[in-house]
Amino acid sequence: MRIYEGSPRQDFEEVFRSIGAFIDSHGMRDILLLEVPDGFVVQGLITAGASQGSAWSESVGSISKETLSFLDDDIAKFMEEAAARRASGQEASGKGGQYERALRVIGHWMDTQHPKDVFLFEQAGSYVIRLHVAGQAGSHHELAEFTKDDVESLVTEGPNLRVPPRPTGVAWGETPG
Predict the structure, then answer these.
(1) Does residue 118 lie within any of the structural domains?
(2) What's the domain range around 81?
(3) What is the tens place of the pLDDT at every residue in 93-147?
(4) Is 117 helix (H, G, I), strand (E, B) or coil?
(5) Looking at the domain assignment, is residue 1 inside a domain?
(6) Rounded Cα distance, 97 and 83, in Å
(7) Domain count along the chain
(8) What is the CA radius of gyration of the chain?
(9) What distance lies between CA 108 and its chain's CA centroid?
(10) Model pTM?
(11) Does residue 41 fall inside a structural domain?
(12) Are 28 and 44 contacting, i.e. CB atoms less than 8 angstroms apart?
């Protein structure tokens, strides 16, 4: 990601978490997420106009595909807003919505892969990801799949992966004493 070039860690975990929160808040489903040079393109299905009418088509509403572009500045803003929301206690459960949770753990996994480019699509809670990775042998694409059960397992394991907070006044590497 361009906003993280030069930094020691490409933080897909936080970027995807914040995009997931946006997706949750807008009621998207069956999403596609594509990294582009200046941000991300997100596409998903939106159900609009659902009602309690008597006809089947009226009660379901209309389904449309929505495509959004998020520039690096938009992503940075989403991340700041999410951090402020968590710090203020507005997220009482601390768990977030379906996409926020799923994209966070997938982003965490992606951080370990050090991709240069990402393409992701989801259907019914399962995700297929294409990563462009570069190494000493050159660059290539890798595919990964996360079933709905895989994602749920990663979300459950998530708290165990977090670094414990450092006690106040103790530098990294020191033993509290």
Answers:
(1) yes
(2) 9-160
(3) 556 789 999 999 999 999 988 888 899 999 999 999 999 988 888 899 999 999 9
(4) strand
(5) no
(6) 15
(7) 1
(8) 19
(9) 9
(10) 0.76
(11) yes
(12) yes
